[in-house]
Amino acid sequence: MKISVSYLSSKYSKEQTIKLIEATTADYLHVDLMDGGFVPEKNFTITEVLELLKNHKKPLDIHLMVFDPIIYIDDLAKLEPKYITFHVEATKDVVKTIEKIKEHNIGVGLSIKPHTDLYELMPYLALVDLVLIMSVAPGAGGQAFLLESVSRLKELEDFRNTNHLTFEIEMDGGINADTIKLVPNLDIAVSGTFICKSADYQTQINELKQ
Prior knowledge:
The chain has 210 residues and is of the alpha/beta class. The protein has seven helices and eight strands, in the order βαβαβαβαββαββαα. It has a single domain (2-209), classed as TIM Barrel. Strands 1-2-3-4-5-6-7-8 form an eight-stranded parallel β-barrel, surrounded by four helices. The mean pLDDT is 96.
């Protein structure tokens, strides 16, 4: 299982948190971008994001919690991320947004809120590289893991296997040393507070990877 670390909720500044993450064996730097519309909080401008991450060393795993995600793709592509993930609920033209990301040779991720039916994803699963299951309501760090996420993961795994698809499955929200044991078949686990509010990032990552 790979670990993607979110700097959304930390004891330190974003700049310092990113430096600490990049000094670990984390597989990805998870970038949560919120527009104040799709979720209540706004935490970025494109200029700020490009400046903050211009010298990143870890592969970027960008999670857009925004309406009309397509308008951000060209700018974010300058960072050469591994993935750009957007929400199925956030646009009326999912396919056009997928195609826009692919134009830049970036992996396409599709995310879904905890209470959106997984069938909303089904028409697009052959087109994407990653599916991000939210195991908390999107938009804030430090929330408790929703147990129904375990069955959602199993349903998505079964669909992938039955249809011989190859997308990776990622989960984000409330992931810690206990909850990660509930989802051992995940491809990528996103963890923020558990790592970034700790005194030793590497020790926490080691716990997740056990």
